[in-house]
Write a structure and sequence with these properties.
Length: about 325
């Protein structure tokens, strides 16, 4: 009996030790990021500490050994919060799941881009565990996740009684917030933001619509060219700037109800240099001079040129007189 008790106690201590090590592995104030190949944490590559989740890898990889497409990441971290309501915000391309103290607050595990998520959660004062899971399918890759403390703006019942899903239809929160039920333009990023003409700049936009999907992304590239405006369903676009200048690119989203929304965060300054000035100007062509011509030998001195050209001229005159009498 004593042997059984001893074995049980040993097993309990081992389990406690394992759990303690696992718990201590999650940092405070930063994230531990576990990076995998495969869209469902299939093949572990490496771990690292990330101060924040704010990445735009475009068409590239997040790190050595990680695929450019088809990879997944799990971030875990403990963070201090004061008591009150906190709005959690996410912008993924593609899938995302987010948890606060084990409670799932965002669940959109699918291919998507240009979709912004907002959800409000009431937290007690102290440290809370944040876990964010993300996967990338193909092409563009990036994710943003953060939070801000908010105060109630309204206590009225939202349209439809509030029975909706974050990122698709209007989310519920207690107390209620007007901002959760108003669509908005939330992001415009791009690159490169400066260079010589002609310069191709790639853009990525995002909008928030609590009642459905964004109907259209309206890009105004700001250079007043024939193709300076573009309206499409896709949140990605590219534009070639042909003339130098400083331009402001702007994104406007059209929500599922037909409302047009833009904001300061949906504007970018583009600086273009080059050889153009108030329209197209041909490059300057500098005429060649004697000092820049390659040396050929006999014709390189003025005296040689005179000694050859004068006799030739006299011979030409004599021949002309002789044959003109025939």
């Amino acid at each position: 009996m004593r042997r059984i008790i001893t074995i049980a106690a040993t097993i309990s201590l081992l389990l406690f030790f394992v759990n303690s090590v696992h718990a201590d592995d999650i940092p405070t104030g930063v994230y531990k990021g576990d990076y995998y190949n495969g869209q469902n944490f299939d093949s572990f590559v490496f771990s690292r500490q990330d101060a924040a989740i704010n990445f735009n890898w475009w068409m590239g990889s997040p790190g050595v050994g990680v695929n450019k497409d088809s990879f997944s990441i799990r971030w875990q971290g403990r963070f201090d919060f004061s008591a009150g309501d906190w709005e959690f915000r996410a912008l993924p391309d593609d899938g995302i799941r987010a948890f606060v103290d084990g409670e799932k607050i965002i669940d959109s595990w699918k291919i998507q881009h240009g979709t912004f998520f907002k959800v409000v959660k009431n937290l007690s004062a102290g440290t809370h565990l944040i876990v964010v899971e993300y996967y990338e399918a193909d092409q563009w890759a990036g994710i943003g996740f953060n939070w801000v403390k908010v105060t109630p703006q309204s206590v009225t019942t939202p349209p439809g009684g509030g029975k909706v899903t974050p990122g698709v239809t209007a989310p519920t929160a207690s107390p209620l917030y007007k901002g959760l039920y108003v669509s908005s333009c939330e992001n415009l990023s791009g690159g490169p933001l400066q260079g010589d003409a002609p310069l191709e700049v790639s853009f990525s936009g995002a909008g928030y619509d609590p009642f459905g999907a964004i109907a259209a992304y309206i890009f105004d590239f700001g250079d007043k060219s024939d193709d300076s405006k573009l309206t499409q369903e896709d949140s990605y676009a590219s534009h070639i700037y042909d003339k130098p200048g400083i331009y402001t690119a702007k994104l406007t989203i059209k929500d599922s109800k037909g409302n047009l929304r833009t904001s300061d965060v949906c504007k970018l300054k583009i600086t273009i240099g080059g050889y153009y000035n108030e329209g197209y100007t041909e490059p300057t062509v500098y005429p060649a001079t004697a000092s820049t011509l390659p040396k050929t030998g006999i014709f390189d001195s003025a005296l040689s040129l005179i000694l050859i050209t004068v006799p030739m001229a006299i011979l030409g005159i004599l021949l002309n007189r002789k044959f003109s009498k025939l």
